[in-house]
């Protein structure tokens, strides 16, 4: 353990130095504050024994400067002074000293206090190392969890894409063919059998409805238009379709070129709008929804607000199910943040910000 003595009195320095060396400590000494601060910059001590009344820079000023420097503020300082003035003791402790010993001191008492503060310093450094190690481990675990979540999200999107493709390319086409067959049979049916004819018309209409529903489900599972035409066009089509089906008008405002967004960012923002409008239709009883998208070379911003019934934001995680939780995880993985604000009777607001060229967005692309 290294100790620095700062004292302008030669006899006092020699006494302290001899005592501490005899007990196995490495000791350096300085006869003034300026010299001491210079030596500390070169060799950091584990403890400083500091006199108060010195010519030039006194001990209080030395202590103040030590505590104002990031590289020295955590070095324990013990004042050793001939003064027993209570105000000086209080001032020394106020400046950050860990102890105050009055000269002449008792050898055993001084050694006990020095040993105590050196041990406390060692324990503090050990604790800081443990905290730093644990923090690094937690960060690594968190990053691993985020990478796993990203892979799960990508796997989910790939499965959605596969199911959507099968619905669109296979089942949807089969229904279309079946509808044409039913319509052909209707035309060939004898006009005298009006009941059979009406039944075929109803069957045809049901097939058309089912065909439309399957196409809508296919689009919901995997909005290919995001890839083909960009986020802006995908939002225009989706908001228009939502307004047509729900009867709730959606005012859409787009600034910037969404076609230049990272595909993961674009799809994630589309999913936010998709989930938000789905919640509006199911729960909000809103008469107006505003969707605003703004994108630049650095950041994409999305806001969705409605004038519906609102909800208690404090109970959000318990009541919204997996959809919004999954979206929040997706946004966080991309290095963005999502803020949801609402109150009963006051509508709801969702704000999303994603750095479009973040390392997280780039990493997401490598996980696909």
Structural description of this entry:
It is a single chain. The protein is rod-shaped, with a radius of gyration of 37 Å. With 368 residues, it is α/β, with parallel strands linked by helices. The strands form two sheets. The chain has a five-stranded parallel sheet with strand order 2-1-3-4-5, sandwiched between helices. Strand 9 and strand 10 (348-355) form a beta hairpin. It contains twelve helices and ten strands. The longest helix has 82 residues, at 107-188.
Q: Assign the structural class, choosing from mainly alpha, mainly beta, alpha/beta, alpha+beta, or little secondary structure.
A: alpha/beta
The tally of strands reads 10
Per the CATH scheme, the topology name of the domain at 229-368 is: Heat Shock Protein 90
Question: Count of helices?
Answer: 12
- Under CATH, the homologous superfamily of the domain at 229-368 reads Histidine kinase-like ATPase, C-terminal domain
Helix content: 55-70%
N- to C-terminal distance? 53 Å
Radius of gyration equals: 37 Å
Order of helices and strands: EHEHEHEHEHHHHEHEEHHEEH
């Amino acid at each position: 353990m290294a100790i620095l003595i700062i004292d302008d009195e030669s006899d006092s320095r020699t006494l302290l130095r001899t005592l501490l060396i005899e007990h196995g400590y490495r000791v350096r000494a300085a006869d003034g504050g300026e010299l001491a601060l210079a030596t500390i910059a070169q060799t950091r001590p584990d403890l400083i024994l500091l006199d108060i009344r010195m010519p030039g820079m006194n001990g209080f000023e030395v202590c103040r400067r030590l505590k104002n420097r990031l590289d020295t503020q955590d070095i324990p300082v013990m004042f050793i002074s001939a003064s027993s003035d209570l105000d000086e003791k209080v001032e020394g402790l106020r400046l950050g000293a860990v102890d105050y010993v009055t000269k002449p001191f008792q050898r055993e008492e001084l050694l006990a206090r020095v040993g105590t503060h050196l041990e406390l310093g060692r324990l503090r450094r050990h604790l800081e190392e443990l905290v730093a190690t644990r923090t690094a481990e937690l960060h690594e675990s968190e990053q691993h969890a985020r990478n796993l979540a990203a892979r799960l999200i990508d796997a989910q999107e790939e499965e959605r894409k596969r199911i959507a493709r099968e619905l669109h390319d296979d089942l949807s086409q089969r229904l279309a063919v079946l509808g044409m067959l039913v319509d052909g049979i209707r035309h060939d049916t004898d006009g005298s059998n009006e009941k059979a004819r009406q039944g075929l018309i109803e069957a045809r209409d049901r097939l058309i409805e089912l065909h439309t529903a399957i196409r809508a489900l296919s689009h919901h599972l995997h909005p290919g238009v995001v890839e083909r035409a960009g986020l802006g066009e995908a939002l225009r089509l989706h908001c228009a379709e939502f307004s047509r089906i729900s009867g709730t008008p959606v005012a859409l405002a787009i600034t910037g070129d969404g076609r230049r967004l990272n595909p993961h960012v674009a799809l994630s923002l589309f999913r936010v709008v998709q989930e938000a409008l789905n919640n509006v239709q199911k729960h909000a009883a809103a008469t107006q929804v505003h969707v605003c998208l703004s994108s630049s070379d650095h950041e994409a911003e999305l806001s969705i607000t409605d004038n519906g019934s609102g909800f208690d934001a404090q109970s959000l995680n318990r009541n919204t199910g997996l959809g919004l939780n999954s979206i929040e995880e997706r946004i966080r993985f991309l290095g963005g943040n999502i803020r949801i604000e609402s109150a009963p009777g006051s509508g709801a607001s969702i704000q999303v910000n994603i750095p479009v060229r973040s390392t997280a967005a780039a990493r997401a692309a490598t996980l696909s």
